[in-house]
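Quarterly update from the structural biology core.
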Amino acid sequence: MRPADTSDLWWRTAVIYCLDVETFQDSDGDGVGDLDGLAERIDYLADLGVTCLWLMPFQPTRDLDDGYDITDFYGVDPRLGDLGRAVELVRVAHGRGLRVIIDLVVNHTSDRHPWFQSARRSRDSRYRDYYVWRDRPPRTSQPTVFPGEEDGVWEKDEKSGQYYLHSFYRHQPDLNLANPEVRAEIARIVGFWAALGVDGFRIDAVPFLIQQPGGANAGDPHDFLRELHRFVGRRRGEAALLGEVNLPHKAQLDYFGTKGTELDLQFDFATMQASFLSFVRHDAGPLVKALRGRPEVDVRQGWAMFLRNHDELTLDQLTEQERQEVFEALAPDEEQRVYGRGIVRRLAPMMNGDPRRLRMAYSLMFALPGTPSLFYGEEIGMGEVPGLGDRMAVRSPMQWRPERKGGFSTAPRSRARAAVAESGYGPERVNVHDQQRDPESLLSFIRTLISRYREAPEIAWGALAVLHIDDSAVLGHTLSADGATFLALHNFSEQPRRVELAVREAGGEQLKDLLATEPPVSAARGRFVVDLDAYGFRWFRVATPE
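Predicted structure, tokenized:
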């Protein structure tokens, strides 16, 4: 399909950049990032090539779960700014060509939210049925999302004498989506932020949201997503719904709905996890299997590709043996692992700071069919803060300059929001300022990848074909659309590789390099021969000689 036919489907060709306002830029020296500070950095994001800004929660909160315990869905955390500044930020972003999506965290509220405070005071409260209550917990319950931190999903409320459901932390009581009034409240929240110019919503933990264990029978749980999609379309026609659905590919199809009726984008957890297994095995096989098993979706929908995000690197779709392989290679210390399924590290330290491995990994992410998504600091190779032992390890302040606090804040160290990374990944060595001036830096490389990605629309729109490569260390794939074909080769091995491809597999007689100024590779006797460095990669556009 030609881009002109899909101009309103901006999320299919976006480059997403996720950040936490609290850790991005402090404008007033109080040690906390804020909306004004972020607005000052919009030019940086636009120059990088980002087209969609994803904001983690910035609403009022107890901050017991880094903002995901919201006390007012219609406000702004006063430490970060106010509604006027939020609107100004959206305007500034739009002025530089960036769309803005925000987290929609409506699985639960904070236990300090006025709804829950009223609900626990009286069983006759109008907000009582906004939550899920039981006289006693069911005999069988779902396991907690946070093993080791919570021992169950039901908590007794001493004030009312009943138990309430909390799929996450006990201070986050679940909302009852079976209640039409709760759905109406969520629609009002979405409508409010859409009216302020927000271009879409990243919906947190979608399976937990629509399929609450212990909740009342609400009929088809996907009715809520269909209602929400219709409502968003009416209020802001080009708004997108991005869903966090950590399920196998086939199960994710239900969350897209029929012909664009539910989620517009879903994060591709299965491919991400297979990628890390391939990284540690130096074998493309697991990723090849995942890509060949990934179902096609409607042209209006797509997959969001990522390597790291604000949570742990979850490995829950791997087998126990596979998970242990990845743990031993990338998280050798127990403190780097959480919940028996995840790793709380950033990508650069996991790759031992090896620029070859880092660049191959990011090349792979941008070359695979889908919408690439970056977590702030990835573009410069930031590290985590060791010893925190939870997801906060990867949420340290952005590193702007080669100074002790990284240029994030002018506040005294005692008032700083959080420690910056150290052990070779601190701001003295890893920062935006220095990398902007170095054409060989990771930042410059990511900027190039984004530029080439946007110049090759077949990456977003093309039909995927995973090529048969005799060497298991190499992944080869093509993406074809409207007569154009993109070909990528990635070497997962620490040894150089030579790859031979038949012309019929590549789909043309010349390979034009998209990442380097190398002369085109021409076929000889019906075959291409391409050399790959250790952890090397090549991007080509397939063409005929004329």
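Residues 5 and 299 are 11 Å apart (CA to CA).
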